[in-house]
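[audit] Reproducing an earlier prediction to check determinism. Same input, same settings, fresh worker. If the tokens differ from the archived copy the diff job will pick it up downstream; this log only records the rerun itself.
[audit] input (232 residues):
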Amino acid sequence: MSRLRTLLGPRHAGHTMPVDELGALSLPVGDDGVVIGDDAEGHPQMVGFHRSAPYDVLLIGGLWTAQVIALRAAGTGARVVVETGRAQAWTLLAQAAGAGLECITLHDVGRVPPQGATVGSPVVVVRDAGMRPPRGRVVSAPWQSVLTLLPYLSPVAPRLMRNSTLVGVQRVSPREAEQIGRILGLSSAESDALPTLADGVTLWCAGRERHWVMTSPTDAETGLLGTARRMD
């Protein structure tokens, strides 16, 4: 009868450090996120689009913010697929991203083919399909997140808000702010602030979590997309 033997590697003394130095120890955890901006204290805020479960994000806001997120998602190694009825607004971005590589591709509304997302090749689908985006063939799936852009509140917005894991809201009218507040369970102060938001500021909501985030472009992003703006 053969006998299994345990193989032991070389033995080394354990690594130790004084207790008062533990505060200097940090670990790079969750480094696959997309930096969407800074909070009020100047701390970077990230969204992890690369997930093993379906992930839906809704942004009620401007094209500029959606394009910054798409560009930064491509920078993390994701394939970014844009479903849009205004390809001319995305063409320059798609050409500039990836230094000639097709890391951002454009497709007409309803014409996005299956992407075959995997852990080694994650996909972010950006749906820029107007006020009433049709139900797309390509939906969120493991390693394939979907970001839907709505310029303003529309009849489909309540359904999308309820079905999305993360919802971002930029400047809207007082009437829209009231309706959004009811659906998302915002406080009166949060709802009242929505019509006054500056360009580039977004209230991101995930369940009961709330984060006010300012998206500031890098020099390269400013050269490509211009300064932050709510209107397009």
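[audit] rerun output stored. Observation attached for the diff report: The beta strands are 34-38, 44-47, 55-60, 79-84, 104-107, 123-128, 144-150, 166-169, 201-206, 209-214.
[audit] end
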